[in-house]
# Entry
Amino acid sequence: MTRGVALSLVLAAAGCAAPSTRVSKTAEGVRLSSYARIGVMPFGGSSADPDAVAEELAKRLFRMRYSVVYGRQLRAALSQLGVQKGDSIGDRTLRELRRMTQIDALIVGALDCGSRSRLPRASALLIDANDNRILFETRFEPKECSSHEAPARVAEEISAALREALGREGKREMDFGLGLGTED
# Structure
């Protein structure tokens, strides 16, 4: 066993997991910049406050110049549609939610703070509100999960992943404009 692996195991056992690599993916042919109004649902999982991560993420999306529909507004609209907490949202309900709130996309996510036998995990999906297609996804092991700073740190990680995807999108467009890119 290498010293790095041993150190990682010790840190993980102490509840202070070493940072892990974030994995993010944008669906083929999707232009994230074309989705101007995003709804942010409260996060699922075992975090103490499901609204905390969503509120922090909504603030960051707003700073990224997105128009944001907050979780409380989405909950009110879903309640009018007869959807209760824990119910799944199908294509028809999502389209109706889009009509009521004018969202282009919806972010859903989960923060699982784990247990002694499991590392904490966070994930987020950006879903097209028109056709329920997954546009973007990211997942990672948060460095902190149980502190009061965890929602802000998780939201920052998710928004950083979106910024990176938007940066790659902008670079691709610039490369095509300069004749450096190739069309598939």
User: Anything to note?
Assistant: The chain is about 40% helix and 20% strand. Residues 24 and 161 are 7 Å apart (CA to CA).
